[in-house]
User: Fold this.
Amino acid sequence: MTFDRLVCANCAAPVAEGRCAVCRANRERMQQGPFAGLNPVTLIALLVVLVGAMALLATQTA
Assistant:
């Protein structure tokens, strides 16, 4: 789930809007990390490419 779909329990607004201090703090926390800017579809595509590369490498060495 991406943070743009989360709803704040403090102000009942989307966290992505950052209406209250709790929203802003959680939005900043969730934007940190190496894969924070990637959407789930991109992450799945990267995983498929990685698995394909591993399979190709396994067939080359066998």
User: Anything to note?
Assistant: The CA atoms of residues 31 and 37 lie 7 Å apart.
